[in-house]
Structure prediction request, 227 residues.
Amino acid sequence: AQSVAQPEDQVNVAEGNPLTVKCTYSVSGNPYLFWYVQYPNRGLQFLLKYITGDNLVKGSYGFEAEFNKSQTSFHLKKPSALVSDSALYFCAVRDMFSGGYNKLIFGAGTRLAVHP
Amino acid sequence: EAGVTQFPSHSVIEKGQTVTLRCDPISGHDNLYWYRRVMGKEIKFLLHFVKESKQDESGMPNNRFLAERTGGTYSTLKVQPAELEDSGVYFCASRSGNTIYFGEGSWLTVV
Prediction:
């Protein structure tokens, strides 16, 4: 079955330190991978995506993610965390059986808390 | 360019009542999706429209949920009658290329 796993419910990091939010996936074929962020009481905002090409993808707000096919991972990273990065982060993969219609399968979400 | 807009942003209704959620996709987007996240769980797909046609409604939980997209523009999602387990946030999204853009969500509380 297709799935996305975000193994950490919460990640705590000090402001200015690098952060990593982990994501692994299980789909057949070449995955389309996405990260979204949900700030408190707000909707889902698109951060970045991997479709093909360079394994390191750069996105909004200084975030980047690295696609690793052998480890089936797509971890979200940022070199220097800000308190304003505190939010709920969702990893998603395209349902490979949805064809070109891009139905997404989401992970459970990881809450990132950046402390001053 | 306006994003995906949803109305109402918050709704509190009693069990057994009806609620209708509205979504206006980004202008020109033929593909419109509904997802929901019930308390602390994963965001789950509900259904997908291509223009006015339902492409995939495999995620609709039961026949208390009815989605429409007359004219292929805005969409509505009606819950009738609402149950306690329907509480959560309902996200609408529309697609450009391979990127799906979500709205702010409609937060539904059934009491």
